Amino acid sequence: MTAPNFSRTVLGVPRIGPRRELKRAIEGYWKGAVDRAGLEATAAALRREEWARLVGAGLDSVPTNTFSYYDQILDTAAMLGALPPRVAEIADPVDRYFAAARGTATVTPLEMTKWFDTNYHYLVPEISAATSFALHPEKVLGDLDEALAQGVPARPVVVGPLTFLALSKAVDGAGDPLARVDELLPLYRELLGRLANRGAQWVQLDEPVLVTEAGLGLAEEVARVYGDLSAAANRPSILVATYFGSPGPSLEALGSTRIEAVAVDLVTDPAAVDAVAAAPALQDKLLLAGVVDGRNVWRTDLEKALATLGTLSGSAAALAVSTSCSLLHVPYAVSAETAPEPTGAEGVRAWLAFAEEKVAEVVVLSRAFTEGRPAVSAEFGRSAAVRAAREGDPRLHDDAVRDRLRDIRATGSGRAAAGERAVVQRERLGLPPLPTTTIGSYPQTGAIRVARADLRAGRIDEAEYVRRMRAEIADVVKLQEDLGIDVLVHGEPERNDMVQYFAERLGGFLATDNGWVQSYGTRCVRPPILFGDVRRAEPMTVSWITYAQNLTDRPVKGMLTGPVTILAWSFVRDDQPLADSADQVALAIRDETVDLEEAGVRIIQVDEPALRELLPLLAADRPAYLDWATASFRLSTSGVDDDTQIHTHLCYSEFGDVIGAIADLDADVTSIEAARSRMEILGDLNRAGFANQVGPGVYDIHSPRVPTQDEVEASLRAALGAVPADRLWVNPDCGLKTRGTEETVAALRNMVAAAEAVRASL
Ligand code: GLN
Ligand code: ZN
């Protein structure tokens, strides 16, 4: 049965609540402060209000089942009976679900990883030979019932079988999960039948994996899987949603099946417009044209989007206006930003569109397309005026910044070769072999949290806040001296977040008050918005670091965040290449390193934990990215003398794809997450020709477990098998911010003892 087409929709919506109501309810439930009924009532109200907003705004098809207590991939695993067996004993389905998400005293949670190239994290389903799939459609069906009872033109959204399996990992020696797609097809067919019986006219199957490198090889599977599902007799009309890039060969494959609609992201890869326009693939289908950017925060260029719709109008049987991807990745509403705009960012808010404003843009565009532009000329006029104001804004173009960048690029790095630098640094620093250090942050104490809250509430002034932070720093310095650590840190108590801290101090960035975006589960972040050329008005870290340095004779590391990581965790400009924005941030960081050096700081660490995160989804795009990313890091770190030692820190990833880039960063010392991969990273680095100093993490800081001295010694000896002693540093895997003080002290004590024991045996 073919359902009527629709003309305006979005692929998904935020779900944490406009005021993070869901976060509070779920965390309350975990603590026992909110009961099950309370949790469910909050969730139902959020769904109801969201649907009402979408219908009220004028969408004629509304995505449902986008709600989740934690994560949509975990929801899909639950729906397909693929939760790990270790949670099976937990009888209650909600508690079982949360156990898989976050573990219990006895159960380890599923692993979490990044959702494509966004900052959302999903839970990785585990598929073993023993996994026997079975359909549990209660959530999808219940959600549909609710929506239909409310009179919503519901389009349930479900993760498609190819994406689900591609994102899963094989465990217990099982083969590639994708090979098991035929086991899922009967379940999806049954689900389609049940949805149709319940009154669903449309269903949206999300297949973002089709835009990735892995997706390039899936066209045949796409034709087979969707050929099969679309052949089902009893089903709603099927929309397959691709997003985060161009669908590539999958477009033809989808076109060859009997599905009714395809969604294409026309923002991420502008070439997708021509690819769709040139392909006859969609002649009998509805095309959801993703012309409104679902994951960045800028107002849409309505004229350009309308022109795109015009270009595409002949290439499909019908066109619907949509977002490029789910709006999960942007905050709820610009209209929720009510405080006066911060100095330096006046007027910028008018340039922005969050979820609510993007829904309105979809409707305006659809009306322009169907009723003609005059019907919405006022909206088009307003949008054009705002865009013109943005384009002409002087803050977008700072000649001083651009001229300096050009000069620095022209003169090159100026630092000596790594080997020569190592010699002068060794002389200056006089460190023992296998020097010990930590990654930057120390445990967030209660006193730090209280001080921050007191400052925010106006109970203390800035001077008192600084005094309390300095007391924290003094404690951390003393602790490190007592432990016998060689290279100290100040502990980063003054930083709420390693990116936000710098964004708040740099011109060209706007912080939001309510711009929360789900990162994972109940964790939300407020990414800063980079809107203009980046200017550093004054030193950002020097007074903290010099305060710490003056307390000790041992070297204290200056701590900065690198340009790639600052961009990766912000909303970025869409009016210039990311590489240009990165270099501007790099220039500000470079100026900071020079100021730190002048203040007597001998070692400066520039963290790039997100280096891997911005890696393009398609292999062909990766070399260019890695080129500018590493060049930008070198720009940020090459302003100092050869005897100032530059460290960097990398974590959160499998480094395979970026191993060559790590060498290209050319930091004097690289600390890198390694404990969980048992030092294998060192062999990989050697093979990539990396010959600088390295600090493979000798213990995992993601768990409260205290490593024994023997374990750390064993790690160190393993590391010495790959790296000579004069290139090896000793440090934990990552910052210690999330750990308790007691376990941290115990772990570091064992780490130092292990380093001393191994040193003695050299
Ligand atoms: N210097 C930071 C810290 O120690 C690094 C954090 C990170 O790698 N994510 O907290
Ligand atoms: Zn780290």
Automatic annotation (TrEMBL):
Cofactor note: Binds 1 zinc ion per subunit. Binds 2 Zn(2+) ions per subunit.
Keywords, comma-separated and alphabetical: Amino-acid biosynthesis, Metal-binding, Methionine biosynthesis, Methyltransferase, Repeat, Transferase, Zinc
The enzyme's E.C. designation: 2.1.1.14
Enzyme class per UniProt: transferase
Binding site for Zn(2+) 1: H649, C651, D664, E673, C734
Pathway noted in the entry: Amino-acid biosynthesis; L-methionine biosynthesis via de novo pathway; L-methionine from L-homocysteine (MetE route): step 1/1
Binding site residues for Zn(2+): H649, C651, E673, C734
Positions annotated to bind 5-methyltetrahydropteroyltri-L-glutamate: R20, E21, L22, K23, K114, N119, R523, C524, W569, E613
One GO term (biological process): methionine biosynthetic process
Residues the entry annotates as binding L-homocysteine: I439, G440, S441, E492, D607
Entry-linked NCBIfam families: met_syn_B12ind, PRK05222.1
Family as reported in the entry's similarity comment: Belongs to the vitamin-B12 independent methionine synthase family.
Protein name: 5-methyltetrahydropteroyltriglutamate--homocysteine methyltransferase
Organism in which the protein naturally occurs: Tsukamurella conjunctivitidis
